Amino acid sequence: MKKPLMLLLFPLLLPSCSYQKADSNVLYASFYPIYDFAQRIVRGKMTVKNLTPYGSEPHDFEPSVRQVVEMTEGEAFLANGLSLEGYLSSLPKEVSDKTYVVTEGIETRSLNGIVDPHVWLSLPNAQKEMERICSIVSKLDPENASYYADNLAEEKERFSALESQYRPKFASMPRKTIVVSHAAFGYLCAEYGLEQIYVSGLSPSQEPSPKQLETILSLVKEKGITTVFYEELASDAIVKKIASETGAKVEILNPLEGLSQEEQKTEDYLSVMEENYRKIWEACR
After folding, report:
1. Long-range contacts made by residues 42-48, C-beta under 8 angstroms, separation at least 24?
2. Which of 120, 141, 163 is the last residue of a domain?
3. How far apart are the first and last CA of the chain?
4. In the 8-state DSSP scheme, what is residue 143?
């Protein structure tokens, strides 16, 4: 069996990077939501770095060998797991030994026999991920464990407040179906008894067959859906075609797989989720 390229190049590049030691007080996050959650817990006691570049989505991302070398110097690597990061099994032992899956213990959903990795789009699940991160960093840095626990409690209050605000609104909506560009919102929908009709599967790169597209068009008309959602990091061509043929309007629903550098100046996980909730409410009320 051939070794992955990352494992072949890692020992060659390691000596050339050893003279420039990375900061050891660093948590590496595989993509944006985990980066955001970790920031909320550590609040400056550790540096948090997001492996996935600004404005990129994590499904097909793979870290460079240089990034992997830097990760060997960090405290920990926080990953989503559930097959979101296809490179996890290729990481060298120096990184895999300090890799923590933050979705551990969360009940998962499946789509067509494949585990859905988008657990972060449920606010209750996001709180569980923060609990897991708090537990991890408290073991790594026990002197600040009470500080991390206090931060967790504050953040859970914020997340619960938003969830409590919209749960009764969603329960009262006359329509319970949303049309989305890819099947990222299963956990969110499950929380509130909603249904997602998806154009693409669990990865935004998948495309529907002509027959599937015909079925989607029929469902949009049958259910009286007035808004179809797309996302900025994926093509909007099919969603716009659906809107054109059904008279629905087009809106962005953000799966939070990656925010641009500009977006991160004014937005974070919770503000984007609040905007997502507002748009779902307006589309279905």
Report:
1. 42/137, 42/148, 42/151, 43/147, 43/151, 45/137, 45/141, 45/144, 45/147, 45/148, 46/75, 46/137, 46/141, 47/23
2. 163
3. 55
4. G
Do the strands 177-182 and 195-200 form a parallel or antiparallel pair, or are they unpaired?
parallel
- The two three-digit tokens of residue 70, written as one number: 């830097």
- Structure token digits, residue 130: 């923060």
Please say which residue of 131, 163, 195 terminates a domain.
163
Count Cβ atoms below 10 Å from residue 12 Cβ, excluding itself: 9
Nearest to 270, CA basis, from 167, 140, 168, 121: 121
pLDDT per residue, tens digit, the chain (285 aa), is 444 555 555 555 555 555 455 567 999 999 999 999 999 999 999 999 999 999 888 998 999 999 999 999 999 999 999 999 999 999 999 999 999 999 999 999 999 999 999 999 999 999 999 999 999 999 999 999 999 999 999 999 999 999 999 999 999 999 999 999 999 999 999 999 999 999 988 988 788 899 999 999 999 999 999 999 999 888 889 999 999 999 999 999 999 999 999 999 999 999 999 999 999 999 999
Three-state DSSP state, 176: coil
What string of DSSP letters covers 90-134? GS-HHHHTTEEETTTTPPP-EETTEE---GGGSHHHHHHHHHHHH
Strand-pairing partners, residue 198, are 180
| Burial class of residue 117 (count of CB atoms within 10 Å of its CB; 0-12, 13-18, 19+) | buried
Specify the CATH number for the domain of residue 201. 3.40.50.1980
Using DSSP's 3-state secondary structure scheme, residue 78 falls into: strand
**Does residue 83 contact residue 101 with C-beta atoms inside 8 Å?**
no
The domain total for the chain is 2
Do both 151 and 235 map to the same domain?
Answer: no
Do 159 and 208 belong to one domain?
no
